[in-house]
Amino acid sequence: MLPQVRALRARFGDRLAVVGVHSGKFPAERETRRIARAVERLGVAYPVVNDRHFRVWRAWAARGWPTLALVDARGYVVGTLLGERTADQLAPAVARLIDEAAAAPTPVEGGARPIAVVAAAPVARPLRFPGKVAVSEPDADGARHLAIADTGHHRVLVGRLHDGGRRLHVAHVVGRGRATGDVHGPAPGGSTRADLAARADGPPGAATFDGPQGLAFGRGADAGTLYVADAGNHAVRAIDRATGAVRTLVGTGARRRTAADREAGAMASPWELAHVVGAAGRPSLVVAMAGTHELWRVDTATGAAGPIVGGRGEGLLDGTLADALLAQPMALVADGPRAWWVDAEASAVRWATLPTAAEPAGRVGTLVGTGLFDFGLRDGVGDGARLQHPQGLARLGDGRLLVADTYNDALRWVEPETRRVTTVGEGVVEAGGVAVAGEEVWVAETGGHRVRGRGAKGEEWEVEVSG
Q: Smaller CB count within 10 Å for the chain: N or C?
């Protein structure tokens, strides 16, 4: 809803007042310091109330996220709406209330009361809210490359690792450092893929992103490409690793809302992606589509894209690919016929056998997680373990899964065969992504504005970004 609220404020100016009420589902979301960080990260420019005890929620009879309430100039609630709405849908009602107030102005009794504001500390680091991180396979000389989604700066950093993974020498800073809409203005109505390319593609210093998240180094025929889940632009982008040039692979730049949007190739908050090389050597991407609770497949050669799992609603339901329900997938890994991902809203780790000629229906199962409102910090086996809104996932060569348990500020091991969950690190501030190479781990510590490394013997370091 944030882009829609921004559009309304731009249209009506100071004739429209906006107040956000944050009624956090997860315990971590009820901490004022975390809310202040989120306000800074998302660029929220209006007051936000921490409704940690759900008092405002109950008083206004809210039934879900988001709930919108329209209040006229006299202070009367004239309507509430459950669910997402566009600025174009809301604008007529707002304009009518403004016109009514101008025609018969009524002084508001009691005047305005100040709202205490808790601001996040300014970020004085090379990175700002980094969301995801990816590490390449070794070059011929054994060197590895690291890519960082510098999400808060709306850019991607790509370079070579040195000093045992402790230093990143940046070869390409890809992105102008401002969101696409901020640089070029809002997307026109009926935006198409060509519109986004014209607005946002180009050489590294001219191209733009909007809150980039997931990253995947291509392999095989795609070895020269880094793929980006450009969440705010609702698109999958491709970066030429040699030049840093950006092109749009799929997506229109606008969020998918209607059947017509779908036909035009629109996506909805792609958050993570994995590069897969099929049995015939044909490369593709598996994409975690957080906005519509789906997994998609994208052909990297043609840009052909579509859902393969989920999409009928939000939930935690196993079964065939067509029957399964997902709940905001935000990280995934894949090895061809199989994928693993985290459903953030269900605090779950899931798996799927992807469609093949032998098994076109596929299957979805759950390793950890029991429902949308079951969460916590508890080690154990299967349904006895608890996570809290995980957003990062990596897979080691021995099959173990490393989970960035974001709202628990922790790293957790998940063993797929036994479903055992073990905590291996705490104090990682709102980690959004993890990547592994051999026995070394790199963590995008979103809330700490840095990337941290962890060695095979448990030693830790902050990656120095230079160049």
A: C
Tokens 């946002």 -> residue? 200
Rounded distance between C-alpha atoms, residue 420 and residue 380, angstroms = 6
Distance between CA 357 and CA 300 in Å, rounded?
20
* Per-residue H/E/C for the chain: CHHHHHHHHHHHHHHCCCCEEECCCCHHHHCHHHHHHHHHHHCCCCCEEECCCCHHHHHCCCCCCCEEEEECCCCCEEEEEECCCCHHHHHHHHHHHHHHHHHCCCCCCCCCCCCCCCCCCCCCCCCCCCCCEEECCCCCCCCCEEEEEEHHHCEEEEEEEECCCCEEEEEEEECCCCCHHHHHCCCCCCCCHHHHHHHHCECCCCCCCCCEEEEEECCHHHCCEEEEEEHHHCEEEEEECCCCCEEEEEECCCECCCHHHHHCCCECCEEEEEEEECCCCCEEEEEEEHHHCEEEEEECCCCCEEEEEECCCECCECECCCCCEECCEEEEEECCCEEEEEEHHHCEEEEEECCCCCCCCCEEEEEECCCCCCCCCECEEHHHCECCCCCEEEECCCCCEEEEEHHHCEEEEEECCCCEEEEEEECCCCEEEEEEECCEEEEEEHHHCEEEEECCCCCEEECEEEC
pLDDT above 90 covers a percentage of the chain that reads: 79
Two tokens at 48? 């936000």
Sign for the pseudo-dihedral over CA of 417, 419, 420, 421: positive
| Mean pLDDT calculated for residue range 18-39 | 94
Per the prediction, the chain carries an average pLDDT of: 92
Burial of 226 by CB count in 10 Å (0-12 exposed, 13-18 middle, 19+ buried)? buried
Residues in CB range of 88: below 8 A, 6 or more apart: none
pLDDT-based confidence at residue 69 (cuts at 50, 70, 90):
very high
Give the whole-angstrom CA distance, residue 41 versus residue 152: 6
Is pLDDT at 142 greater than 90 in this prediction? no
> Which among 293, 279, 276, 191 has a CA at the least distance from the CA of 235?
191
In the numeric block, which tokens belong to residue 7?
Answer: 């559009």
Domains of the chain: 2-103 (3.40.30.10), 133-466 (2.120.10.30)
Which amino acid is located at 200 in the chain? A
Whether the per-residue pLDDT at 80 is higher than 70: the answer is: yes
Pick from 83, 252, 243, 109: which is nearest to 173 by CA?
243
CB contact at 8 A, 463 and 167: yes
